[in-house]
Amino acid sequence: MPVAELVTALLADWRAGKPVSLLAVKFHHTLAELSARLLKILATQTGVEQLVLTGGVFQNRLLAELMIQRLIELDLKPWLSEAIPANDGGIALGQAVIAGR
Fold first, then answer.
1. How would DSSP label each residue in 20-55?
2. What is the separation of C-alpha 26 from the centre of its chain, rounded to a whole number of angstroms?
3. How far apart are CA 68 and CA 55, in angstroms?
4. In terms of Cα–Cα distance, which of 45, 51, 58 is closest to 85?
């Protein structure tokens, strides 16, 4: 489902009085699906199959789990940091490493 269709569907569901939790789940699943499909296209074009999922957005456990699941289904190899924060803490560590060199 393209992004415009997702927004239209979410607004229709909201106007119909569907629970916000249902809208949130639909949003997350669709975002993960669209992102995974795009990454598969890029992986096919570049030959890169190992993907590092980072940034503050991947502090969202549901989105991270959905992305990992979908990328594996598409025969890609996702990586998610466990020891280094996915947000500004990871950026700061990278800056410190570069500064140390």
1. HHHHHHHHHHHHHHHHHHHHHHHHHHH---EEEE-S
2. 14
3. 15
4. 58
Evaluate if residue 4 carries a pLDDT over 90. no
Instruction: Locate 5 and state its tokens.
Output: 């269709």
With pLDDT > 90 as the criterion, what percentage of the chain qualifies? 64
Locus of tokens 């699943």: 29
Six-digit token pair at 54? Answer: 């980072």
Position 42 scores a pLDDT of 97
Q: By the 8 A CB rule, do 37 and 5 touch?
A: no
CA distances from 60 to 17, 66, 97 (A): 25, 10, 26
Residue 1: pLDDT over 70: no
Question: How far apart, in whole angstroms, are the C-alpha atoms of residue 66 and residue 70?
Answer: 6
